[in-house]
C-alpha cells in the first residue's frame, strides 16, 4: 500500500524557504524570502506583550476579533460586512487562502491563476483536487491580455485567483484590468479569491483597489489578507478572509478543523496594529518606495534589465544582464557561492514554458538599509569579477 497520498508525493520543499534557510545557516545575506529583517513597530510589540501579560494565552473562539476587523475593513474597502457572519480569522493569509479553496473547490474544478505568481496557490488548489489553469501576463510590463483571459475560462472554471499588488512582479492591477476580470466573473458566474497582503504597499500614483468593490463582486469574492507584510510580523500568523456569509461560515468551520484558532495574544495586537494612525501606513509606503528605488539603481548599475518598475509589493523582479550567459538558477548559485547573497530564481514563479522565464531573479527589498547596502556592495563585486573573467576569456579566445 502506498504510504503517501498522491498529492503529497508531488510536493517538494519550498525553494524559497530552502534558500532562506541556507542564508540563515551560512551567514549569507538573505534577499530571498519576503520577511523584514528589521523590528516590528514598537506600539504593536507592546500590545502583544500586554496581551500575554494579561493572559490572552488560551484558544480563542473563532469569532476572535471579527467585530473590530469588520469596522476597519468597512472603512478601508467600503464594503458592507456583517462581523458575525462574513469574516474568518485565520493563521496568516496562507491559511485563509487554503480555507477559501477548501470551502469552494471540488475535484476537477478549474481555477484560473496568473503566470507568474506566488508559489503557494497551486499546492492548495491541488490538495483540494482542483486543476490550476494559468494565464500568462505579458512581459515586460506584465500586461493582462483579455483575449487570453477569456480563453482560459471553461465550463469547469470555478474561480480565479488575483494577487494585487503582485508577487513576484510588483504589478498593481489597474481599474480597467480589474473591471475586465470582474466582468468575466459575472458572465461566467465564477468566484474570485483575492490575495491583498500588499494592499498598503503601493508606489508612485498606483493605488490598491479591491476586486470586491466592483459591481456585483462582493457576493462572489473571497478577500484574503494579513498583518504579515503591513506590520512586519510574518511570524505572528494573523490573517483573515472576508467572504459572502455562507462561504465565510464554511471557512470558519474549516479553520477550526485545520488549526482551531489563530494566536490569541497576536489577535489583540492586530487590533492595535490595524488602528495605527494614517502616518504609519504612509511612512511604510514611503520607506519601501525608497528601498525599491535604491535596489533599482543598484541592479540597473550592474546591468540588470529593469523594464518594469514595481508598482507595489516588496519585490523587484529583475532580468539578468544581456551579456550574462547564465540561467537564473546558475546565477543564484554563483551569487551564493561567490558573493554571499541569496535571491530567488524567477523560474519558480512561472508555470508555462517560455524562453524568457529562466532570465529573471526576484530580489526581496523588505530589508534594513544596512542589509541592502551590504548586498549592493557584494553584487557590485560579483559583477566586476564576472566582467574581468569574461574579458580574460575573450582575450584567450582571440
Ligand atoms: C503574495 C503573498 N501572499 C501571501 C503571503 C504569505 O502571507 P501570510 O504571512 O499572511 O501567510 C506572501 C508571503 O510572502 C505573499 O508574498
TrEMBL record:
Annotated Gene3D superfamilies: Aspartate Aminotransferase, domain 1, Type I PLP-dependent aspartate aminotransferase-like (Major domain)
Keyword Transferase (UniProt): yes
InterPro entries in alphabetical order: Aminotransferase_I/II_large, Kynurenine-oxoglutarate_AT, NHTrfase_class1_PyrdxlP-BS, PyrdxlP-dep_Trfase, PyrdxlP-dep_Trfase_major, PyrdxlP-dep_Trfase_small
Domain Aminotransferase class I/classII large: 27-379
CDD domains: AAT_like
Protein's UniProt keywords contain Transferase: yes
Cross-referenced Pfam families: Aminotran_1_2 (PF00155)
Membrane-crossing residue ranges in chain numbering: none
Cofactor requirement: pyridoxal 5'-phosphate
GO molecular function, one term: pyridoxal phosphate binding
UniProt keyword terms in alphabetical order: Aminotransferase, Pyridoxal phosphate, Transferase
Example of a GO cellular component annotation carried by this entry: cytoplasm
Family membership: Belongs to the class-I pyridoxal-phosphate-dependent aminotransferase family.
The protein, known as: Uncharacterized protein LOC107426231
Native species: Ziziphus jujuba
Gene transcribed to yield this protein: LOC107426231
